[in-house]
Each structure stands twice: as structure tokens, then as C-alpha cells.
Write a structure and sequence with these properties.
Length: 278
């Protein structure tokens, strides 16, 4: 049987700042509206084009008439419509209102949020997952998603009350990797019992650990467990790790920024898992 084609999306032209579609898209800057609608916004041609390339449907593409003349934007608009998404061509004033910036030269994509249930995660041998406890900073979360993507990791498991990965700041910091990395959100108790059945190494990072991060085994399906910016790893999650390691601090700094520490750990793990031939 052939694939069913979506009906082509509509093309709307909006110049009124009070238009309800403009209000709705602008409203996605607020967490409560993202929660209620299950949608989010990504800004910039690269991010939105990355989403389309990875098959993440664009519900609405917003751009000005001038930017629509760019071949890449026109191609993206054609792709969006053919997959059933709408195009909203707005005046520069409307785009400025949506983006909350003066004279933005950009496109906006509106997308459905996607997260995977924890129980759908299958431990594959070459997969790395970052387990992230209560991260608070959208820039850190976005950078971690981007870094997981950069090492070919599978995804990020968000534990407890983390910052929203679909906030504009977090999405921006992923630089498009949000469309290529699986995200899971779960309560701590759920993650703890799920971790107990994990068949590979579970390496936690802790400032009080005595094992140097370069001296542990990262091979097999790997969970890398990172603590919160202020509080660090909770005792319950630290207990669930099979190894706790520390990145030695040589100077006066007592810890690294969370995203930097995650990057150091992911690349160290990659070095052990995929050694290069001399
Ligand atoms: N005050 C917190 C504490 O006592 O853990 C500092 C948290 S640190 C800013 C945030 C997270 O980054 C930590 O929970 C840990 O996962 C990781 N991290 C930062 N520096 C680290 C280091 N030197 N060794 C191991 N993990 C580190």
C-alpha cells in the first residue's frame, strides 16, 4: 500500500499584531502555553531546516515576504506545505513581535514536542545515554543535548524537575541537535528502578568520588549520570550508580560547569569506547 500523503498546508499572510495566530506563536515563549499545546518554537534557518531534514514535521513556518525570496527558505516552505504544515508570511513588525527582537532576519518553525517513554529505551551496545538530574539552566541543557549529538550518543534522560528542554533558550543552545537526540522525562523513583535493570556501566559524576574519570570502564551500553548545577547528584541517584568518578581539579575551582563536565565525560567515554588506531 502506498504512503498516505498529507493535504498541502495553507499559506496565510498576516500583518496585524493582534492576529490570534501571532498571539499563539508568541505565547509559546511561556512554559504553561508549551505544556498546554504540546508545541514549541525553533528560530533560525539552520535549526528549522535541520528539523525538516530529520523528518520532524514543521506545523507552521513563519517568515517575512523578503526572506521568503531566499531559495533555501522557499525550498523549506515547499517541503513544509507538501507535508501538511502551514506557511505564515508576516510583516517585519509581526516577526519582531513574535521574536521579541528588533529587525529579526530569521524564520520561525512551530513543532510538536516529542519525548520517548523511559520504558521504550533499549540498551544497545554502542549507545550512550546521559541521565541528568534537575538541571536548571536552559543553556546547560541545550549544550548537553548538542554534545550528546556530537559524540553520536542516543539521548538524555531528564530526571525530576528539570528546566523545559523545549524553551526557546534551550532549543537555541542545542543548535538543531534537539531534532536528533531522544529526550525522556521521568520521576526519580521511576528512573531508579529502571536503572537497576540496566545491563551496562552506570558511571556517576561526583565531587566526593575518589576514582579518576580516566580510570573506569565505559564500554557497553553506558549511562552517564550528571548532577544538578547547585545541589550536585542526590544521594539516591549516586547510590544507583555502579561507579562514581571525579574529574580532578588542579586549580582553585572546586567544580566544572555542568555542561562542560558532561562534555569532558562524553569525550572521555568515547575515547575508551572507540580507540583510534595509531
Ligand atoms: N555544588 C555541587 C556539588 O557539590 O556537587 C556542584 C555541582 S556541579 C556544578 C554540577 C555537576 O557537574 C555535578 O553534579 C557533576 O555531575 C558535574 N561535575 C562538575 N565538576 C565535576 C568534577 N570535577 N568531577 C565530577 N563531576 C563534576
Amino acid at each position: 500500500m502506498g504512503e498516505r500523503r498529507a493535504a498541502p498546508g495553507k499559506v496565510l499572510r498576516i500583518t496585524s499584531l493582534a492576529n490570534p495566530i501571532v498571539k499563539e506563536i508568541r505565547g509559546l515563549a511561556l512554559a504553561k502555553n508549551r505544556r498546554a499545546s504540546g508545541r514549541f518554537v525553533a528560530e533560525g534557518l539552520k535549526l528549522v531546516a535541520d528539523a525538516a531534514d530529520s523528518g520532524w514535521p514543521i506545523r507552521t513556518l513563519v517568515h517575512t515576504a523578503a526572506i521568503g525570496e531566499d531559495d533555501r527558505v522557499a525550498g523549506l516552505a515547499a517541503k513544509t506545505r507538501s507535508r501538511g504544515g502551514d506557511i505564515v508570511v508576516v510583516s517585519p513588525a509581526v516577526l519582531a513581535k513574535i521574536t521579541r527582537r528588533d529587525n529579526p532576519q530569521t524564520v520561525i518553525g512551530v513543532f510538536d514536542q516529542k519525548t520517548a517513554p523511559l520504558k521504550a529505551i533499549r540498551p544497545k551496545d554502542d549507545a550512550v545515554w546521559v541521565v541528568l538530574e534537575q538541571a536548571r539552566d536552559p543553556g546547560n541543557l541545550g549544550t548537553i543535548v548538542r554534545t550528546v549529538d556530537a559524540v553520536g550518543g542516543a539521548g538524555v534522560i531528564l530526571v525530576g524537575d528539570t528546566v523545559d528542554p523545549f524553551s526557546i533558550e534551550a532549543v537555541r543552545a542545542t543548535m538543531g541537535s534537539i531534532f536528533n537526540v531522544t529526550l525522556t522525562r521521568s520521576r526519580e523513583e521511576e528512573v531508579l528502578s529502571w536503572m537497576a535493570a540496566w545491563p551496562g556501566p552506570i558511571v556517576g559524576t561526583h565531587l566526593a568520588a575518589t576514582i579518576d574519570y580516566r580510570r573506569t570502564d565505559y564500554r557497553g551500553p553506558l549511562l552517564l549520570v550528571m548532577g544538578a548545577e547547585q545541589a550536585g547528584l542526590s544521594p539516591a541517584l549516586a547510590d544507583a550508580c555502579r561507579r562514581l568518578v571525579k574529574i580532578p581539579m588542579a586549580g582553585r575551582a572546586d567544580s566544572l560547569n555542568l555542561a562542560v563536565a558532561t562534555g569532558v565525560m562524553l569525550f572521555e567515554a568515547a575515547r575508551h569506547r572507540f580507540p583510534i588506531d595509531d
